[in-house]
Design brief:
One of its GO terms (molecular function) is trans-2-enoyl-CoA reductase (NADH) activity. The protein is α/β, with parallel strands linked by helices and 417 residues long. It has a single domain, classed as Rossmann fold. The protein is built from 13 helices and 15 strands. Strand 8 and strand 9 (171-174) form a beta hairpin.
Length: 417
């Protein structure tokens, strides 16, 4: 089947906090963008010898920090990688053109793995729900079969799933992006309509219920990480000196009501607590360690779906300029400075703060002034709006340099394994 997808389609959903709902993605652009990540990470000189970095498992490795960490580990340090993610696969029998070509995550994985294998590295993916105990057991069995005699040098936990399977009921549990305890007002922008430019709106977000808090902690907290680590330890698949990294985002005072002080903040605090507990266990049993990593604010597939984040990101990109790091730059810096011979150390809380540049006093002061100056109904800077939207579209395979979006592509060919 021949198909052309010339433009990124999306709409703003005011009832959900004026979040951005994407309507399509471009598989060719997604794959080219992923190949560009490999090219960037390989441009600094010869890659490390294949296998030099050991074998790493990346949970949530199909986008954002997960795919970036995988590329950094492989290209900079010669690591073999196993990805676990849950991405819609292409369905050649579907009459829906988007379902027919799958999802950005599936195409990102495919492109990364082709490129890494061409470099002599082993790279495999398991398309499963990480919350499913049976699927987890299948991954463990596959590691033993595919990598006989090898153990995991490290695990990168970068799962950002909106929901996960509750094995007690067999039903999916969803998280909620809501404040805790009190209604909060989120400042964000609308999209342009007809001849009207983007404008600022203030939206009330009601607090989450206790049930939503529990579900959010289940999906985004530390319980599932602990389950994976305990099963991997029981299977004796963790190498001596093993490293576990759990990656999340703390946020700044400007987005605290929905992040650190919201339901997701409860879940992330639980993730950090679990990471510290696992650090004690890994240190005692394997002379290993577990460290929580606080990443910077970046544009990912999830960025458009969180109330207030589009405005925060649009302003942050402008304030930081060249100082802003995308996921790949952040993950490359982290591994180079904190691991593989790097001498940087976690902070006094035991956290690796890759959000250090975002939270610098001059950056946050400038952002606070920008936010304060924006009032409901004000026109929002079109250039800042378009810059954010171009970055968001890129996570969906659009706005990628060198891709002819007017051209048709063969869906069977682009979806070939």
């Amino acid at each position: 089947m021949k198909l052309a997808l010339p433009k990124f389609q999306f709409r703003f959903m005011r009832a959900a906090g004026n979040v951005i709902f994407p309507g399509n993605f471009h598989p060719v652009g997604t794959q080219r963008d992923a190949e560009g990540m490999i090219a960037r990470a390989s441009a600094d000189g010869p890659s490390a010898e294949a296998g030099a970095g050991g074998l790493w498992l990346v949970v949530g490795g199909s986008g954002g920090f997960g795919s970036a960490a995988r590329v950094a580990l492989a290209c900079d340090h010669g690591a073999h990688t196993i990805n676990v993610s849950f991405d819609r696969q292409p369905d050649p029998n579907s009459k829906n053109k988007i379902r027919r070509i799958g999802s950005p995550g599936w195409h990102r994985n495919a492109a990364i793995e082709r490129a890494l294998k061409a470099k002599g590295l082993q790279a495999v993916s398991h398309n499963i729900d990480a919350f499913d105990p049976a699927a987890r057991a299948g991954v463990i069995a596959s590691i033993r079969e595919t990598f006989p005699g090898q153990k995991l040098a490290g695990v990168v936990w970068s799962l950002a799933a909106p929901k996960g399977l509750d094995p007690r009921t067999g039903k999916a549990v969803s998280s909620a992006l809501k404040p805790l305890g009190n209604t909060t007002v989120v400042k964000t922008f609308t999209g342009p309509t007809d001849d009207a430019p983007p404008s600022i709106v203030n939206l009330e977000i009601k607090p989450g219920t206790p049930e939503e808090a529990i579900r959010t902690q289940f999906v985004m907290g530390g319980q599932i990480v602990e389950a994976w680590m305990q099963d991997l330890m029981s299977a004796e698949l963790l190498a001596e000196g093993h490293t576990l990294l759990t990656i999340s985002y703390r946020g700044s005072p400007l987005n605290a009501p929905l992040y650190r002080d919201g339901l997701i903040g409860l879940a992330k605090a639980d993730l950090e607590f679990t990471t510290k507990a696992l650090d004690v266990q890994l240190s005692k049993q394997l002379q290993g360690r577990a460290v929580a990593v606080e990443g910077p604010a970046v544009i990912t597939e999830a960025s458009g779906g969180i109330p207030g984040v589009p405005l925060y990101m649009a302003l942050l990109l402008d304030v930081m300029g060249a100082r802003h790091e995308d996921p790949l730059a952040s993950m490359r810096r982290m591994f180079q400075e904190y691991f593989f011979g790097g001498e940087a150390q976690p902070d006094k809380e035991g956290l690796i703060r890759m959000d250090d540049r975002e939270l610098a006093e001059d950056v946050q002061s400038a952002l606070a002034a920008r936010f304060e100056a924006l009032n409901e109904g004000d026109t929002f800077d079109v250039a800042l709006y378009e810059r954010f939207m171009a970055g968001y579209a890129r996570t969906r395979g659009f706005e990628v340099e060198g891709v002819d979006y007017a051209a048709e592509f063969d869906t069977d060919e682009v979806c070939a394994p």
